[in-house]
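Lab notebook, bench 4. We co-purified these components, and the gel suggests they stay together. Before we commit to crystallization screens, I want a quick structural picture of the whole thing.
Request: model the full complex, all chains together.
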Amino acid sequence: MCASGKYTSRGPALIPRMKTKHRIYYITLFSVVLLGLIATGMFQFWPHSIESTAEWSLDRRSVHDAPLVRLPVSSPIPERGDLSCRMHTCFDVYRCGYNPKNRIKVYIYPLQRFVDEVGVPISSTGLSREYNDLLSAISDSDFYTDDVTRACLFVPSIDVLNQNSLRIRETAQALAMLPRWDKGMNHLLFNMLPGGPPDYSTALDVPRDRALLAGGGFSTWTYRQGYDVSIPVYSPLSADVELPEKQPGPRRYFILSSQTAIHREYRAELERLKEENGEALLLLDKCSNLSQGAASARKRCYKGQVFDYPQILQESSFCVVLRGARLGQATLSDVLQAGCIPVILADSYILPFSEVLDWKRASVVIPEEKLPEMYTILKSIPHRQVEEMQRQTRWFWDAYFSSMKAIGMTALEIINDRIYPYAARTYEQWNNPPVVKWSSVNSPLFLPLIPPRSPGFTAVVLTYDRIESLFRVITEISKVPSLAKLLVVWNNQNKSPPEGEKKFKCPECTAIDGLSLDQTHMVERSECINKFASVFGTMPLKVVEHRADPVLYKDDFPEKLKSFPNIGSL
Amino acid sequence: MQAKKRYFILLSAGACLVLLFYFGGAQLPASGRNRHDRSRHGYRSDQPWPHFSDPLHQFLPWDQPDTEEYNIHISPRQKRDVNTSVYKGKRCRMDSCFDFSRCKKNDFKVYVYPQQKGEKISESYQNILSTIEGSRFYTSDPGQACLFVLSLDTLDRDQLSPQYVHNLKTKVQNLPLWNNGRNHLIFNLYSGTWPDYTEDLGFDIGQAMLAKASISTENFRPNFDVSIPLFSKEHPRTGGERGFLKYNSIPPFRKYMLVFKGKRYLTGIGSDTRNALYHVHNQEDVVLLTTCKHGKDWQKHKDARCDKDNAEYDKYDYREMLHNSTFCLVPRGRRLGSFRFLEALQAACVPVMLSNGWELPFSEIINWNTAAVIGDERLLLQIPSTVRSIHQDKILALRQQTQFLWEAYFSSLEKIVLTTLEIIQDRVLQQESRSSVMWNSHPGGLFALPQYSAYLGDFPFYYATLGIKPHSKFTAVIHAVTPLVSQSQPILKLLASVAKSQYCAQIIVLWNCDKPLPAKHRWPATTVPVIVIEGENKVMSSRFLPYETIITDAVLSLDEDTVLSTTEVDFAFTVWQSFPERLVGYPARSHFWDSNKERWGYTSKWTNDYSMVLTGAAIYHRYYHFLYTNFLPASLKGMVDQLANCEDILMNFLVSAVTKLPPIKVTQKKQYKETMMGQSSRASRWADPDHFAQRQTCMNKFASWFGGMPLVHSQMRLDPVLFKDQVSILRKKYRDIERL
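Here is the predicted assembly.
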């Protein structure tokens, strides 16, 4: 264990030679130290498990090891949160600095267990599984830094995902105690379930100074555009249920409503729609005969008929996502996972990641007031668009909703894009599903321009050693008025290019196509095409049946009046 | 020896003590109260987040009642009403301050208050009002209106300005329709004045929306206000200057990397950034010039650098710099917006924004990251390295996007005003609103009408972006104007040869003849369905109506006496598939500038180029039917109907205005009907001598509405690949084309 061990074993041989007085002194000293060490070791590891002789750096650890922090009653409380905060007023950009990788650095505070003066924890659940997943994901990502002095963004380890499990005042005090809090500057809080009864505010009620909030369920009145990040409410089913990806196309039901806690006024409205449109609608509710719990979360019922949830979502083209007490609903995530198009009825709701995601491509947003018109509105959407949206929903879920990691990384990417806007991801990168990314064609010269003739063109002539042929090409090309420059690429290492001004002529030019007629040459070129196509993963070449001619080509018209009289004479 | 051993033991004991302290120390802070100790060596912070092994709670317990309580207490309707009453003034949103019920379904109408005598209105505001009055949104009936625009000039609310309108508060309050500003839109360019330049307009705007320049993110009410660009008095009403970029150069670098030339404010708001510019100026490729010489008493505030700066400033020509720089700095002025922004955009000089908190123009719909570099005033010194780090591919894209945005939304006052109205319309119609792709890619939101379809694949512009292809068939629309009397009439021949095309899905006969519809059996039997539609008003424009029966993307538009072979149809359609956004036709015409008469001329002579194809035989996307009917003003369509002429010219104007490209001529065909070929003595509108003169007049009338000449010349005609080549005719797929 330590260097002393070795000498202790030899001790008995040495000790007799010492003076007794000294011997006793050393032995006592030694025993005290040893005992102390053993006691410390026991105290350290005993209460948890004998096995965990493991070091701090090893993975298996318990949240109960986290140091306990007692909050004095008088501990300061941050300010409520400033609605006018924007990146240029409440965010310290100097912390992020100039960075060739255009990547922000994120620091995570080590876990602490906060309790009030009498020892009651500030949160009834402590660190939740989801928040732990989120922090692990950040710490495994390239955003992470363990150097607090280099960090641009700070993420507290205080879990505020669900406001219901928090003691507001004490949580706020705990935030203010964080060593780098500094009025919440550059701090990011993740909250998915804000507010509480009776009036359920749409943003976390914990006073938080200038901290940024990644919140699920913002309304347009609480969301600070360009400062906060709107995130989804994670659905625990995402981790437990695997839904196979379903091809876009018509489904058994047209509209499905699967939420269990729908306001009775809205339920009545949905019932009315059901009466009018019959089988096209399926209205599910919770099953009355099942007890509460995880099992009941996986079942839905309609008049005694039991359906598996969320599997049933895959049977419908559109799925209703109505506001509850809160604007953000975990159902949205389930619906997207099932490839069902969400019909969102939640006035003033800021959709998840709306700063970068184009929700028009993956959802239908209908004002709550227009619920009675829902069927008509959805029916008017063209089929092709419905399929497109179905594909888009699944892609959004895969990329941005499927796990706490996906949610956390997306939120950080969004903030990163704000700090380095010139290196931000593009609309296409955020919104195009892989299938579109593969098949779409985006020309780097996308502006419709008809360039003037004046700059002319540069001729590039590739050559090997057929000098006569080269000279003939040069002679011909140099007659062209728009030629601005002629570049000859000499592609022969064994010979040096001809020098000086040679007279350009072609005494015995061979047939131009002499080479292409060669059989092996053609075979080689076919091989090239196959090789290239396999590397591209697709055949990018397109076949057309037209060619461009001058307007008066081959017309019965005086040649001298034609702009391009000699075309086709070869 | 003994001493040595003693030392050993002492040393080991010491080591153990250190260890003890170490472990003990780890334990201490848990119960300790000193935060600083704890963070330093307690729960070590220099390690990644640990992987906890214990079972953790879920953040959302299964049995947490979500809305039970809520369900009993508040009705959602009540809750909405509460929002409406609470969120007013600075917190206005469409949900709380806009009355949607005023806007009829599918109809977004704008009312402009009649101008009152004795009220002076600036030219700019007058132009805004007449643009609205000339647009398809205008209504003179306030009862029909969804949106109201004041006739009181609110553009300049700087009290020191000569344009400032006094007593606006009372004037506005006295308006009978004011209704506390509900559903009103107020245009404003300048607000506040020296020294603090507040964004207050100096009167109570109630629940009105603002279309305002230089608006800050703090004051901007998202999805309620509209941020508009700051434009000068000289900004043209229609048309406007084209983008400066004529061709792309690669690599895309210009002589200068970054330039700026403008006033420097020595003191007061907004002065910091411009005062610091000299730090970055390097006289070579980063040229940032400021002058102190402005205002009456500049000498009073003059600082040590002024003389040097002023001298440097005079050495450079502003326009030369604009056109020869890759990036142009746009620092804030006294207010957040500055003229430099639009100037840079037009000049294809990528704007580098240094105006913290400016809600960029039309930010609701434009993704500015694709056309500008958003800098941070606090990081001025990093700007040169930032712009240098931008890859040339990105510069090329940024530069092209400046040109697209300039021409789509900014080049004229009309575009700025219409864009503002379209943004509000998108909010009102919700389901029928444009997606981000429609706003941010060619041809832009003003030409892509969401009322046609919300699906991008239904438009001719986005096939490549989506990676899809148009329908593989077309619908023929034959415009019939003469009664069916004999079986040898050209229309019957035409029907037969079009129906034979492998790409023909259906034929629609538009019966625009005064005689009643012929009996069904009079039409020849064809393999494709023939649908006869009776034209409602029997007017010319009806041939371009967006009939619901047109189910294919492509439309083959035909006159009844057009002579066309199946091969020609087939070939033109395959060409169109490669150019789905263009007009593809056979006989072509051209326009030219007649400098003697100072007007546009029209010619049907055989020339080396063309700019129109006749729509008596042309293939194009069905979206253009929708656009022709819904985008063009009643005045132009009315002119066409009245003359029964020029509809093809108008269609060519429209498509070229949208695409900025010429139409496509296929094959040698110069005429397409017997009357043109002089073989028929029948009276035809083509034989009418007035016909030609009318077409000249049309051209000039159209050009003035479009604010310029949208037609573009082309010297290219498309023929089948083996056309007139010296190979066996049997090898040619479209061999009939040569025989004609």
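The first helix of chain A runs from residue 4 to 14. Worth comparing against the SEC data before the next meeting. The longest strand of chain A covers residues 483-490.
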